[in-house]
Amino acid sequence: MKPTNRRKFIATSAALAAGTVASATPLNTMANKYPVIHHVLFWLKNPSSKEDRDKLVAGVKTLAKIKLVRELRVGVVAATEKRDVVDNSWAVSELMFFDNIKDQADYQNDPIHLKFVETCSPLWEKVVVYDAIDA
Amino acid sequence: MKPTNRRKFIATSAALAAGTVASATPLNTMANKYPVIHHVLFWLKNPSSKEDRDKLVAGVKTLAKIKLVRELRVGVVAATEKRDVVDNSWAVSELMFFDNIKDQADYQNDPIHLKFVETCSPLWEKVVVYDAIDA
User: Fold this and answer.
1) Rounded-to-integer distance, Cα B80 and Cα A130, Å
2) Is the pLDDT of residue A18 over 80?
3) What is the rounded end-to-end Cα distance, in angstroms, of chain A?
4) A19 pLDDT exceeds 60?
5) What pLDDT score was predicted for residue B33?
6) Which of B65, B75, B77, B86 is the most exposed place for a label (fewest CB within 10 A)?
């Protein structure tokens, strides 16, 4: 058992013993694991340029070197069903997980992040950010 | 070492031995773990109603019972810095991970999902969906 699992086990056991709501939490809910989510969608200046998209994907991947970024998922538009509610007009998705809001703020000023913005911002036309915290 | 970690270790070792690009992959990149991301943002009909928000959060949490949903994160707006690019006008965030696009499509028709839509759709005014796949 890794230390993180052990801590989780102890916390879960304590919660179960106390008869709290934790016992009703579904197993596949990741609640409280890196509770701050930072999701950034990028729209390219040249939406048809696969080269620009790949450059931006490569740029976003450099952000994984930042220690405060606990997990990173870099994506492109998935070929799911086209529905009115689905926005597939973007080009690159950057999904990050942080331990807390302070880490997310500090990440903004990390030299690797600043370098990424300097290098890659000429590629994008628009950025939309959603910052969520576990409910 | 858990079986999943062991598989990852073996795969990484093989990749390192083969001198592939895998050796350059940062450790905190979750690439290829449930590669399909389904992120849904909900705006409430009554944005000031904490009760409606909590009802919707509870409704989204029921979706964790669907086996095809490999991971689920239910969130509310995080108190990160207000910047032009940050959209904090929504109320509830539903972030899901799937093994593949077919599972995401099948999820749409799962009885638990259909029940959720029936029960909770009167609460929301607008929905925006971003479907991404690991790049």
Assistant:
1) 10
2) no
3) 27
4) no
5) 80
6) B65
- Both tokens of residue B100? 């593949």
Q: B58 phi and psi, to 5 degrees?
A: -60, -40
Of A40, A57, A133, the CB nearest to B75: A133
Residues written for chain B: 135
Q: What per-residue confidence (pLDDT) applies to B18?
A: 40
Question: Under an 8 A CB cutoff, do B78 and A135 touch?
Answer: no
Average pLDDT over residues A76-84: 94
Nearest chain B residue to A129, by CA: B86
pLDDT of residue A33: 80
Q: Which residues of B touch A106 (CB under 8 A)?
A: none
Q: How far apart are CA A47 and CA A53, in angstroms?
A: 8
Q: Provide the CB-side half-sphere exposure for B80 (13 A, CA).
A: 29
| pLDDT under 70: residue ranges of chain B | 1-32
Nearest residue of chain A to residue B1 (CA atoms)? A1
* A50 phi and psi angles, rounded to 5 deg: -65, -30
Which chain B residues touch A87 with a CB distance below 8 Å?
A: 128-130
Q: Which of A1, A36, A38, A39 to mutate to test the interface with B (most CBs of B within 10 A)?
A: A39
Asked whether the beta carbons of residue A74 and residue B31 sit closer than 8 angstroms, the reply is yes
State residue A31's pLDDT score.
52
Residue B8: DSSP 8-state: H
